[in-house]
Amino acid sequence: MLGTTFLLALKEIRRHLMRSFLTTLGVIIGVASVVTMVSLGNGATASIESQISSLGTNLLIVRPGQGMGRGGGVSPPPFKESDVEAVRTQIGGVEYVAPQATASVTAIYEAQNWSTTVTGTNNDYFAASQLELAAGRIFSEAEETAGKSVCVIGETVRSSLFRDDEAIGRNIRLNDISCQVIGLLTKRGQSGFGLDPDDQVIMPIKTVMRRLTGNQDVRAFQVAVDPEYDSTAVSAAIIKLLRERRNLTSGIEDDFNIFDSKQLADTLSGTTRTLTLLLGAVAAVSLIVGGVGIMNIMLVSVTERTHEIGIRLAIGAVQREVLMQFLVEAVVLSCLGGIIGLILALAATIGLSSLFGLPFIFNVEINLLAFAFAALIGVVFGYFPARRAASLNPIDALRHE
């Protein structure tokens, strides 16, 4: 019986093809909007998580300063290498500690030059920042200890200076000093924060302090936390230690701040998910509008087919069969709209993901949920017209012109 009812519903829909399409348009737009918004939101969340993780997992970045965006007053003093060593030896759960001294330089090789940033650090920097080498090697212990003039360069620096030439073993000039290239970093691409992680030169920190900055200041240092430890607890321990070393008594604010990549990733991901749900909920309103359109057209259909309904009831059809026929028509319309909406959402998500540079994520759950909701819309908004058709008096229906 259900199969026959389904065929009758398809036949009725095909008889008024244009009207049926316009009826499902609200559902099509609703499903397409919901799935596209949520899929793009998931892609944005994955992109943010990837960008944050590229900075390093469970990474703490410690800098002098009194919080983000605060200015004025005397600049807080920089750190010293002894502060970094104290964190390395006195704080539990620390895997790597990498001090940083930076300088802006002009890198020169033959007739080519490129403005870039030199980061003076140690070998822990490569592990903490999850930097991999495409060629060459990192610093030897002797090079770090003696402050040799060697460097590891990013892909942007390599392509700007060497074009297609081999970079490993060549000497480049950084302002007034000569530096031998011993390593080449794997290309990482844009970080999404307006920075190019491939545009950097990494040297031993003693070399940078002695030859470029001219002081012993550590402008920042990175702390990679063991995954088995809570980064929040490690951060609190670092704050306590640094307050003691910087003679900050009770009541005086920290003159340094700690950036926690894990907390930032969780915060940004949570915010993105909330916005995704909000946009999805707004888009879902069009599904309700589509349901109202289906109910309206089904009521018109009941009025047009009143005589036909009267004949069916007069020759023995029960109310349940009439109700089922109209209800199936409404559900079929909604499901057709849902299928078309899912196809449009797939195409839109692929196109927009490519346009905005986001990863394409096909979420089976949201697609099934959107389709199920579209079918539910057909049941809910199709029930009233179907009930009205089933409750018609056969005699009155036969008289209808």
Q: Helical region count?
A: 13
| Cα shape | elongated
- The residue fraction in helices comes out at 55-70%
Strand order, main sheet: write it out.
2-3-8-5-7-6
- How do the helices and strands follow one another from N- to C-terminus? HHEHEEHEHEHEEEHEHEHHHHH
Please outline the major beta sheet. Answer: 6 strands, mixed, barrel
Structural class: alpha+beta
Q: What is the number of beta strands? A: 10
- Assess the beta-strand content as a share of residues: 15-25%
Total individual domains: 2
Average pLDDT for all residues = 83
Rounded to an integer, what's the Rg over CA atoms?
33 Å
Distance between the termini: 29 Å
Spans of at least 5 consecutive residues whose pLDDT stays below 50 are 68-72
Overall description:
There is one protein chain. By secondary structure, the chain is of the alpha+beta class. The protein folds into two domains: 2-51 and 266-399, no CATH class; 77-254, no CATH class. The protein is 57% helix and 17% strand. Strands 2-3-8-5-7-6 form a six-stranded mixed β-barrel. Helix 2 (17-53) runs antiparallel to helix 9 (261-304), helix 2 packs across helix 11 and helix 9 (261-304) runs antiparallel to helix 11.
